[in-house]
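Please predict the structure of the following assembly.
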Amino acid sequence: MFLINCPYCGERDQQEFKAGGEAHIERPKQPTELSDDEWAEYLFMRKNIKGVQFERWNHAHGCRKWFNMVRDTSNDEIKAIYKMGEKPPSQ
Amino acid sequence: MTKNLRVKSSEYIDETNRISFKFNGKTYHGFKGDTLASALLANDVHLVGRSFKYHRPRGIMTAGSEEPNAIVQVNPGSNRTEPNVRATEVEIYEGLEASSQNCWPSVEFDIGGINNFLSPFFPAGFYYKTFMWPASFWEKYEFFIRHSAGLGKSPTSSDPDIYDHRNIHCDVLVVGAGLSGILAAKNAAKNNFKTLLVDEKNELGGSTIFENNEFNKIDNKTPSEWLKKEIEELRNIKNLEIKTRTSVAAYHQYNYLLARENLTDHLEAKDKTNKIRQRLLKIRAKKVILATGALERPLIFNNNDRPGILLSSAVKKYSEFFGVACGSKNIFFTNNDSAYESALSLYNKGINVEAIIDIREQSESKIVKKVKEAGIKVYWSHTIVDTAGYKRLNSISIMKLSNDGTSVTGSKISISCDCLGVAGGWTPAVHLYTQSGGKLKFDEEKQIFLPNQNTSEQISVGSCGGDFKIDEIIKNLNHKLKDTLNIRETDLDNINVEIDLENSKRNIWLLPSDTSLGKTKPFVDYQNDATAKDIKLALREGFRSIEHVKRYTTTGMGTDQGKLGNMHALGIIADTAGVKMGELGTTTFRPPYTPLTFGTIVGRNVGKFFDIFRRTPMNDWHVENKAEFENVGQWKRAWYYPINGETMHQAVQRESKAARESAGILDASTLGKIDIQGSDASEFLNRVYTNAWSKLAIGKCRYGLMLNEDGMVYDDGVTTRLGENHYIMTTTTGGAANVLGKLEDYLQTEWPELDVYLTSVTDHYATASLCGPNSKKILKKIIPDLDLSDENFPHMSFKEATIGHIQCRIMRISFTGEHSYEINVQASYGKDLWEKCMEAGKEFNITPYGTETMHLLRAEKGFIIVGQDTDGTMTPIDLQMDWIVSKKKYDFIGKRSLYRSDTMREDRKQLVGLLTEDPNVVLEEGAQIVSELNQSPVEMLGHVTSSYFSPNLNKSIALAVVRGGKDMIGKQLFVPMESKNINVTVANPVFYDEKNERLNA
């Protein structure tokens, strides 16, 4: 059970949060211009990294805010947390 | 006559408080302070159970939670019965009853004991090998295997006890209250850290509390005396909470630990009632100090499992702590100095020690000399090659060990005895450490696994960290405490320790015998009856991974998780495979450390507290009017309102007719309601719904369909424009929370530039849906000054009004196809609104209807229910709802996916209506649809999603999804059922009032 430092509320138990998959996948601005393959890439393809991974998390049972997390999936160490729209920290 | 083996000299046993208890139906006596195990041993009862596979007689082996053999059924036959309880952990109380498990008809005479003689036929993997053939027989085999599987009996009536959960946040959690734990907790608390100290036993002090060895001194006192003084001081320290009878079950990441606090298990039945039995502590600690100690290892030799064979440390504890002699002719078998401490402890209490068998060549420590001086014979370089005594050990045979330790030489000596204390060295209890994600390293010299790398803030101190001698323990503890707590000085700086113990040991994982391995029974896992030869067999058969060997032989898979034998299993595998211990790794220790009751896990979340439920403001009215309820998500919704003993079918038929012929009323309060405000609200709706919203006038309503980005229908509902920048969206009852979450996600992450604010107002409004040709007249009676004409208040429009002083929002929208109004009021006025409608509707026979009738009425109109007629694979096109998908809008969620090659296929499953050939036959929802009857296999074209008997059409109607169904109108298909085949015809899904004339009726 992680202890997650919500950038808006502070440290809270993992059960207050919802994981939201891989971060920094921007919704295409002009979907209609994309080929089926390009759209499928956005829609379906996700990394599943053993190691450092960028993720979206939502403080679902708290402030309801979304934010980003850098987590090492091999040992679940949370390396960084930053707000939506902020640049990811360099590795 | 039973012998009394009490050596009356323990301060932990209250001999003025005599307690009677029953074991296997027979009454025994013990004293306050006894465990079931110590009390039985005092009565010379060693045989307490039968082993799992061979039903071999087994006795008490340990004095702690690592016990593999003495697992009993407590209070059999009562609703408080509990199986698989370790007798070594049960504190006795007046009226306690316990019985042996896994034996029939009795532990003394067990029919299953025949398995022992058949054991050559039960090798490792016996079940996998034997019951593979023929495959079709598995079900028959399973019946018999299930009968012989499992230990103990679960209770058959509900648990009378109360369980609880508690969250604890602390600066420092100390697990284990032995010497190191107590010193760690004391120094943490004194330095202003909020500290919690937990221990699984009822007394603090661990094994040091009965350490009266004259050769070990702390500040010139025996360790026991010294520690008692320390414990006394603990009571006066602030910031320190102590919990005994509290076992840490799990150590998760980020220092989150679960512990079970036992509150009433040691009390008499009369004192248990109305008290919390066990409490699950959910602990979040900034720092964790593990002081979980070490478990003594047994030695692996032929027939090492007989009743009367105990761990040497257990023999010592029973004598020193409980004042019980485990036998009158005691022998110790050892590879290190620990057994000499035990022997001396017994000797000092006047208990007879016959001999010590030591596999080492010699040891020169003072304690060994003292033992020799006491006249106890020591057999150096000897090993036990066999033991005798079926239900109780009566003799051992020993032989001289070869120099390399792989064989025995010379002649066999037989020594009679009734108790054997085995000392194979110590294994640090690193279970919790590894649960937390910590990695181990193997220490070649000590032959133990030690904590190495961990991710959370924690330290392992004392013997669980590899320090076994008191001087090492205190020195390293001091160092680690200063480091982890960032403090300069501690109480430990000036402690003076004298110690005499040799570290010398000779480690042989599997001791040789004079007979071949195949004919011996050297048990490694006592509970699961796995022997060294099973492990070797597994290796011969090609298993290499330690995890595979574990599962194949079931070593370490009992309720004790192999706390005693896992190291030996690893050692034997390493020796046999010719690799080093460290290279093999270990099997994974999983929570819980000791078993938890289900009660502790669920706590108070039982019965009506299992899940929360939500009621509408009108709920009391539905209850008073005898509604039947159905669960929709967490909501309790009125399902139908039977009168005069009507069946559900009868009630629904009556309600459905009434709603179309005169007036019906539905409690629609559960629909999700989201208040949307902001200057970009219209643009936002444009992006989330498939249809266009920019031109919706203020005061108008529109139906919307929401897709996932993959193009599949996600939710639907009517949204009303209340003002220039203000909308109220309704969602499905079950989808409300998810829709809000999804919309928030897009707003925050994809479209942060939009000025839009979302607020859930589902619980703030109560909604009554008034429908039917007389609904207008009823509303007129309630709100006489509101102009209800079609010109002023047409279908799909909105008005604000007041009923008396109650503000209300009225939408003229319809989910039934009838002229209808949805009236929303502040939730607290919901029941009042409902009663006003009922009163005004009396002359029109207004009929309350529930969700079942709602479903029927909408099905007559072919309106979908998201989640019933859709299943996450239906596009709006599949639903024949092309009309709602805007072609003009550049983008909306899911639009691009509607043009993927797969979503544009013509032969996708599409929503159609089905009519049965016999109008009285109602299809089953979920029934499969085929086009051919006399073909096998035949393609399943689709399935029935909604099906009812329509009283208004007087025939059966159904909605279904059928492959390519759009182009099949009029075609005959079949629904094959178990008893008959039903002929159906594909139809337009709108069965009733296709031209929507009734909306304005």
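The radius of gyration of chain B is 38 Å. The longest strand of chain B covers residues 276-290.
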